[in-house]
Amino acid sequence: MNISIQNLNKIYDNGKHALTDINLEIESGMFGLLGPNGAGKSTLMRILVTLMKPTSGKVLIDGMDITKNRAEIREVLGYLPQDFRFFTKLKTWEFLDYAARLAGIKSKKERLQKVDLWLENVGLFDARDRNADKLSGGMKRRLGIAQALIGDPKLLVVDEPTTGLDPEERIRFRNILSDISRQDAIIILSTHIVGDISSICQSMTLLDDGYLGFSGSPEELIAKTAGHVYQINTSGTDYDLLKNTYPIISTIPTDEGWDVQFVADKVSLPNAKQIEPNLEHAYVYFMEYMSNSNY
Ligand SMILES: Nc1ncnc2c1ncn2[C@@H]1O[C@H](COP(=O)(O)OP(=O)(O)OP(=O)(O)O)[C@@H](O)[C@H]1O
Ligand SMILES: [Mg+2]
User: Fold this and answer.
1) Which ligand has an atom closest to residue 34 CA?
2) pLDDT given at position 295
3) Res 267: pLDDT
4) Which of 44, 54, 173, 217 is the most buried (most CB within 10 A)?
5) Integer angstrom CA distances of residue 254 from 33, 119, 257, 276
6) 9, 10, 12: which to mutate for ligand 1, most atoms within 8 A of CB?
């Protein structure tokens, strides 16, 4: 599986330039789309799943053009929208059966097997006979995950999948995704939770206000941040000064003030010591110092 995105632009009717000259190659595996609110993550995903046309540019999915081969692409696709909602009086299992039918599974026996399997996988088996629209928010989210996966998609697009899931559910969801990514599929997930990316994605990209800031592995992004993350123990007045000068990552109280972690291009504070960056540091550093210079 392979996706090639070439000079992609999306300008909404109101003039908002939501994506600007995106060039990106995505190979099989787990791919993370990271960026703040309004970055363009959902816009890019809606284009990939053929729900929205780009203003210009080209997207090929396994060689198929998203504007010309929509039916073929939809056959291999699973999609969980950010605002997954449904209006239905169907029971939970019936809703999944319906999704399986949409995914092209014609045999009723096969469908019912799949339905049971996915009810089990997302922990909804005991709720199978409940009305789907009476499920809790987290359970609806899990039903959304199941409907996206029931047709064994080769391309799975999940928009903010872990929103509203409790920690245990997040881990379960991560494991489900890892299972699928072993099967030559592409899984694209968007998030603004850095931890979701670092724990499961082999490659990632940073979107910021419609621009592609960085593409590569999480490790590469972290490597770019080496030498730019500092920790300093500070008292009250120094802290205010620091806060107004640098992006603060964390503040931990100690016996003599606070241990403050921050990112900076360069600092000349004698007490500040460099520390090993993690992906959260890298994200903040990139957003603050590097993205603008790359545009
Ligand atoms: N239908 C629309 N018409 C006009 N502008 C839109 C439309 N949908 C999105 N936008 C704008 O396009 C930009 C990108 O929005 P998008 O929803 O793709 O961002 P996002 O990265 O998914 O954000 P979030 O993290 O909040 O989900 C935003 O400025 C948004 O306001
Ligand atoms: Mg979004």
Assistant:
1) 1
2) 40
3) 85
4) 44
5) 36, 48, 5, 20
6) 12
- pLDDT at site 292: 54
pLDDT the model gives residue 293: 46
Tracing tokens 């990514």 back to the chain, one arrives at 181
User: What is the architecture of the domain spanning 2-212?
Assistant: 3-Layer(aba) Sandwich (3.40)
Q: Is any atom of ligand 1 closer than 6 Å to the C-beta of 35? A: yes
| Residue for token pair 């399986």 | 100
φ and ψ at 194, to 5 degrees? -60, -35
Task: For the chain, give every domain's residue range.
Answer: 2-212, 223-294
> Tokens standing for 257?
């003030």
Mean pLDDT by 10 residues, the chain (295 residues): 97 97 95 94 97 97 96 92 85 95 92 96 94 90 92 93 81 82 86 83 93 93 93 82 87 88 86 92 86 50
Cα–Cα nearest to 161, from 223, 100, 107, 80: 80
Residue 111 Cβ contacting ligand 1 at under 6 Å = no
Residue 230 near residue 274 (C-beta atoms within 8 A): yes
